[in-house]
Design brief:
Helix content: 55-70%
Number of helices: 13
Distance between the termini: 37 Å
Structural class: mainly alpha
Order of helices and strands: HHHHEEHHHHHHHHH
Number of strands: 2
Largest sheet: 2 strands, antiparallel
Strand order of the largest sheet: 1-2
Oligomer: single chain
Length: about 350
């Protein structure tokens, strides 16, 4: 929205600053951060009044979680509100990728909100049917993948870019759309599974988003894309504004979500943020790299898949409890120990993912 101020620029003046993505990204970050600090406490109090008993706790979960009874959920509303306000204020809204990613984020946020609402009103951990959530997510991801493929240059649309190889593009044709659905829905549900401990999901999301933001900026800049040997996708640089807003809003939320959490993100936040990561990866042609920078989420999701698959066939468990962060809880690791070590793993994986930009 503020980008229109460049129309008054004569060059070299204050208004000219709004032409620069990096300046507007900084503005988006601080806008979302301040928004989170200002509205965080009032939102938490409002959620506590309305939810009363807070988020239901799994009866078969780690015993330490029962001490968290009464903690309100739907804290993702704080992140999403800060994210939307900052993005609309600072992004160049003529970029279709901003609207695609923002649309996916809000749509998955609504799905998560419905699930959270069902849980707190029925006071059980089931919420909305998994088939309904999955079906709605697939529809959203299908539309987003189709829109992204159509908006990309003809040589890139409906193609899969392979990291580490400069000129390798695999033409998936219409199969790119279901592939994009797999990336977006998979990312949304993987982040959702990771959100099980205070502060566990939000920091890895911000780390992965930061890596994807750098990739989006490079891919959307012709000179950087040419130098790094990555495929140039005009307009994706504006996604750095979205990412900066996400990080600012995420830090504002983490202020209240740090142990002991005053509020939980809930599916409202985890599904939305996971969907956002997947959508950014699809828009920037870095779907495979997402599996690296978001490797922690992949491991969390795989631990559940392996556990269910193995148990159905043998009646035995591979892990003490899935997702895998609960396995370490059962082994006696303290919650802060698990959270911080998972943060470290996320940072390492993000750096490895960024290294693919130069290794061509």
């Amino acid at each position: 929205m503020l980008y229109w101020l460049t129309e008054f620029s004569q060059g070299g003046d204050l208004f000219n600053l709004f032409r620069y993505i990096t300046f507007r990204a900084g503005g988006a970050f601080f806008t979302a951060l301040i928004f989170g600090f200002i509205f965080g406490r009032p939102l938490i109090e409002a959620l506590r009044r309305r939810q009363k008993k807070g988020q239901p706790i799994r009866e078969d979960g780690p015993q330490g979680h029962f001490a968290k009874a009464g903690t309100p959920t739907m804290g993702g509303l704080l992140i999403l509100s800060a994210l939307v306000v900052a993005t609309l204020l600072w992004a160049r809204l003529s970029s279709p990728y901003v609207w695609i990613v923002l649309g996916v984020t809000l749509a998955f946020g609504l799905i998560g909100f419905a699930d959270d609402f069902a849980k707190v009103t029925k006071m059980n951990t089931r919420g909305v049917s998994g088939r309904v959530r999955m079906g709605l997510g697939i529809i959203v991801a299908l539309l987003a993948s189709w829109a992204a493929a159509l908006g990309q240059p003809d040589a890139l649309g409906f193609h899969l870019a392979v990291p580490l190889f400069k000129d390798v593009l695999i033409n998936l044709g219409l199969f790119f759309v279901p592939f994009g659905v797999l990336v977006i829905v998979g990312a949304a549900n993987a982040v959702n599974l990771t959100d099980g401990l205070d502060g566990l999901a939000i920091m890895p999301v911000m780390i992965a988003a930061a890596a994807l933001g750098i990739i989006a900026y490079a891919v959307g800049n012709f000179n950087f894309a040419n130098y790094l040997g990555v495929h140039f996708v005009p307009g994706t640089g504006e996604l750095l504004i979205f990412v900066a807003a996400l990080i600012g809003g995420g830090l504002g939320f983490l202020w209240y979500n740090a142990p002991p959490a005053a509020v939980f993100m809930g599916d409202t936040g985890s599904l939305a943020l996971g969907g956002a990561l997947g959508a950014i990866a699809v828009c920037t042609k870095h779907e495979i790299v997402l599996a690296i920078v978001g490797g922690l989420f992949v491991v969390e999701a795989l631990s559940v898949i392996i556990q269910v698959f193995y148990f159905k066939r043998t009646g035995r468990r591979v892990f003490l409890m899935a997702p895998i962060h609960h396995h370490f809880e059962k082994k006696g690791w303290a919650e802060p120990q698990i959270v911080i070590r998972f943060w470290i793993v996320s940072l390492i994986l993000a750096l490895i993912g960024l290294a693919t930009l130069k290794v061509r």
